[in-house]
Design a protein that fits this description.
By secondary structure, the chain is of the alpha/beta class. The protein is built from 25 helices and eight strands. The chain has five domains: 82 residues, no CATH class; 105 residues, P-loop containing nucleotide triphosphate hydrolases (Rossmann fold, 3-Layer(aba) Sandwich); 170 residues, no CATH class; 147 residues, no CATH class; 32 residues, no CATH class. Helix content is 57%, strand content 7%. It has a five-stranded parallel sheet with strand order 2-3-7-1-8, sandwiched between helices. The chain has a three-stranded antiparallel sheet with strand order 4-5-6, with helices on one face. Helix 7 links the parallel strand 2 and strand 3. It is elongated.
């Protein structure tokens, strides 16, 4: 019991800001072994989520709109268990939707940028409302410090808190949630001490399940409706069982021990509870069997959902390239559905799934590429191709060591360059690391001693990526990824073109990605973009000097 409480308390206090992988490393691989080493008693196989929330609690959260993945359930357990006010890192608004469903109509939502926001805070504190402060930045207004720090002063039978120049009376029913839409915010230590920071960023596995439900809802609406009804029924069963158990325990505790055997109402209640429980368990077994069969039918579209989740997590990483590249989940799902609508209809499911996957890939790429600077488009193309290779959707033979070399091109400077006449030192130094990769052991020797003139001729080609390498290295024509490593070493100025060629040959319809919109006029691109816009999604023009789109817009 002591160990269980210790792990669960640490889970609530410290684990909220981290990803699922790091959370597991902390509690499963670090805290549990430490408890064992210190010989603190604990339950073998303990799961903090099961300590913090019962199955019925989790069922209630799901009915309130919480996604059913493990991370979301952990986040909800932390939110309801923490003493400090929760601060949700919630760019996809998953947490907001759940809190809104949980608190229903009693919740007041404000932003710190709106007028008279402090008056709204004072009213919520004194009236006992649930207050949700959304879209905060990395700095929280200092006026809220006394509230966040719980600097409450007792006056008579009530407590007050200082907000600005006013002492506001606290209601015991007051609740506060804070939310930021920033993907990777950096808060001061004081903020982390005042609030419980909880990472509600959607996981790839969680998003995949959500997209699967969306796809099946479009492709097989009856199947998805049955699935939703079964899930709701299962949740209701869990909630009903928990309520029956609670009511029964309450009646037993209220009963007089001396007359408990003669208490007819209690005996009848026990009988009703037993009968209801047995019936629910039978219904649960039937529902589980039906759900299993439905899941098998839904899995046909799993590849489509996985493609969508992979694409979303690719494009949200583009903000590392340029902070301007920000994409909401809502925008993504809009284009996800547009791709489904544009996909050709097939009678059989397999060709339909393959067509859906390729159409979604192309539609999302085109949407994103139109908002990227030209120099950043190859980055996104390569990211897409390499991720598909990693997931083995594209069959390209490569090793992790080769991928690392292509991305980083390390060097070794302890061996002098004997070919200074035509080969730069940096190329020679990189070549000394290339020969450490399996299959390239003889490359430096071939360049230096066996055919230096032939390699020099290849090196001096205007487009070496299109020419065969000397000696046995012409075999790399059949190994395009490995040829990229040689180009990266000897002619790094041509690696962008070589990568475009690789993408064009490797991706299905790869030239459509490489040449996306390049053959279209500005007016044609504008017309296509206009068809994608709505009254709520305007078009922004980022203009370079001399550009004037006014005529085409008119």
């Amino acid at each position: 019991m002591i160990g269980n409480a210790l792990v669960s308390a640490a889970f609530v206090s410290y684990i909220g800001p981290f990803s699922y992988t790091f959370r597991a490393i902390l509690w499963r691989d670090t805290w549990i072994p430490d408890i064992m080493e210190r010989k603190i008693p604990y339950t073998d196989g303990i799961d903090p989520l099961e300590v913090l929330a019962t199955a019925s609690d989790q069922a209630i959260w799901k009915t309130e709109g919480l996604p059913a993945d493990r991370v979301s359930l952990e986040n909800a357990a932390v939110v309801v268990s923490c003493n400090r006010y929760p601060l949700l890192i919630d760019p996809q608004l998953q947490g907001f939707k759940w809190i809104k469903g949980k608190e229903s109509t009693d919740m007041i939502t404000i932003q710190l940028t709106q007028k008279n926001w402090l008056k709204s805070v004072e009213m919520a504190v004194s009236n006992g409302n649930t207050l949700f402060i959304e879209a905060i930045g990395q700095d929280i207004d200092a006026i809220l410090d006394p509230l966040l720090s719980r600097q409450f002063v007792k006056k008579g039978k009530s407590f007050t808190v200082k907000l600005g120049s006013e002492d506001v009376e606290m209601s015991q029913n007051f609740k506060l949630y804070l939310q930021t839409k920033l993907i990777n915010p950096h808060y001061k230590p004081e903020t982390a001490a005042q609030c419980t920071i909880i990472n509600f960023i959607v996981t790839e596995a969680g998003l995949e399940d959500q997209l699967l439900a969306m796809v099946v809802k479009v492709e097989k609406p009856d199947l998805e409706q049955t699935k939703e009804e079964l899930v709701n029924k299962q949740n209701e069963f869990q909630i009903t069982l928990a309520r029956l158990e609670s009511d029964l325990l309450q009646k037993l505790s209220d009963a007089d021990p001396a007359t408990i055997l003669q208490n007819k109402d209690l005996i009848d209640s026990l009988e009703v509870t037993k009968t209801t429980s047995t019936e629910i368990q039978k219904q649960q077994a039937i529902a589980r069997d039906t759900e299993t069969k439905i899941n098998i039918l839904r899995e046909v579209y799993r590849r489509v959902a996985a493609e969508g989740a992979m694409l979303y997590f690719l494009l949200i990483q583009l903000n590392v390239v340029n902070y301007m590249y920000q994409y909401s989940l809502e925008s993504f799902t809009t284009f996800f559905f547009k791709a489904i609508e544009k996909t050709e209809i097939f009678e059989d499911e397999e060709p339909r799934v393959l067509a859906l996957r390729e159409m979604i890939r192309m539609t999302i790429y085109q949407w994103v590429a139109r908002g990227l600077f030209e120099k950043h488009k190859p980055i996104f193309r390569c990211q897409l191709t390499f991720r598909l290779m990693q997931k083995q959707i594209l069959t390209v033979e490569y090793s992790d060591k080769e991928m690392f070399f292509l991305l980083n091109c390390p060097g070794r400077t302890d061996i002098p360059n004997p070919l200074k006449e035509w080969l730069p030192d940096i190329a020679w130094y990189s070549m000394q690391k290339l020969i450490e990769i399996e299959g390239f052991e003889q490359f430096a020797q071939n360049v230096e001693k066996e055919a230096p003139n032939r390699f020099k001729d290849w090196y001096n080609e205007l487009g070496p990526e299109d020419e065969k390498l000397p000696l046995d290295w012409k075999k790399l024509e059949q190994m395009p990824f490995q040829k990229l490593l040689v180009i990266r070493v000897l002619r790094p100025d041509r690696i962008t073109t070589a990568l475009d060629n690789f993408v064009g040959k490797t991706l299905p319809n790869g030239n459509d990605y490489v040449n996306c919109d390049s053959t279209s006029s500005f007016f044609e691109v504008l017309c296509n973009s206009y068809s994608d816009s709505t009254t709520n999604t305007p078009i922004y023009f980022i203009l370079s000097p001399g550009a004037n789109p006014v005529k085409d817009v008119e």
